[in-house]
Amino acid sequence: MKELFKGIIITFRHPHVGFRLTVMRQFVKFCMVGVLNTMVSFGVYAMLTRYALFDPLAANAIAFVIAVTISFILNKMWTFSDRSGTYVRQYYRFFAISGIGLVISEFIIFTLHTMFHVFDITAFIISVVVVMFWNFGANKSWTFNKK
């Protein structure tokens, strides 16, 4: 029994296992920030279109910029624990990756809903999952890469 626990402890000290746990923890945090930002984006959009009578496309653009900015700050400080002072460069990278994610999402929804007649909400959910992995991977390897 003692040997079993010793093997488990050694396994968790293995550098590759520690890396996987760190990445999983970051991914969970990234998803939590994403849920918060979806709520922020929806709230800003709803307020602008319902109370300020903004055009839906203008409201969506404003909501997108606000959500991406909040997401950048939370992901930089909390998800990836990046304390480097390269805010401007990282923000541009983060915004570019989010913009590409938006294009990917639009493409997936358009293709699935228009060409394959998938229910629009189902197409949206599929696009969210795909873009979530794109955003996490691109931001981890490019925006917040510590090398």
Please describe what this structure looks like:
The chain has 147 residues and is an all-alpha fold. Helices cover 85% and strands 0% of the residues.
Name the average pLDDT.
87
Number of domains: 1
Number of helices: 5
Give me the count of strands. Answer: 0
Q: Indicate the proportion of strand residues.
A: under 5%
What's the SSE pattern?
HHHHH
What class, by secondary structure content? Answer: mainly alpha
Helical content, roughly? over 70%
The biggest beta sheet is recorded as: none
Radius of gyration: 19 Å
**Spatial shape:** globular
Unreliable runs: 4-12
Distance between the termini: 41 Å
Comma- or semicolon-separated keywords:
147 residues, globular, single chain
How would you sum up this structure in a few lines?
This protein is 85% helix and 0% strand. The chain is mainly alpha-helical and 147 residues long.
Q: How are the SSEs ordered, and which strands pair?
A:
Elements (H helix, E strand, L loop, with lengths): L1 H12 L1 H36 L5 H24 L7 H29 L4 H24 L4
Helix pairs in contact: 2-3, 3-4, 4-5
